[in-house]
Input
Amino acid sequence: MNATFSLNPQAPDPSAHHAHGCHLLLECSGCEPDLLTDLPLLEQVLEKAASEAGATVVKTFLHEFNPHGLSGVVVIAESHIAIHTWPEHHYAAIDIFTCGMPEVAERIYEKLLAAFKPHKHQIKRLERKPPE
Output
């Protein structure tokens, strides 16, 4: 048997999923207008950014609001990408969350910036982890 066991409850379980995460909050204004209103195009761009960044797309759900605007999430094995668009303000709010893989979150961020081409953007980087 190749398994390692420990009677010490404080010992880390080597198979346990990392609880620390990288959460990027991206505010984009002056975006490519089609990405704020075209659901199939937005789905394609989000999934492509995730895949090209090294993430594994699990499932995508996007909803189109009447009269306009899109909202949704791309569930990735590493966590998620969420988006809300306000075409009337040329604005998109995007959350990128990866568990223990900040380099993947950063690559997704770079790919989405290239696709959305905002005139202005702001990013906030948060470390997510259990309270100590």
Remarks:
- The chain has a mean pLDDT of 89.
- Residues 62 and 123 are 23 Å apart (CA to CA).
- The two ends are 35 Å apart (CA to CA).
- The beta strands are 21-29, 57-64, 70-76, 79-86, 91-99, 120-128.
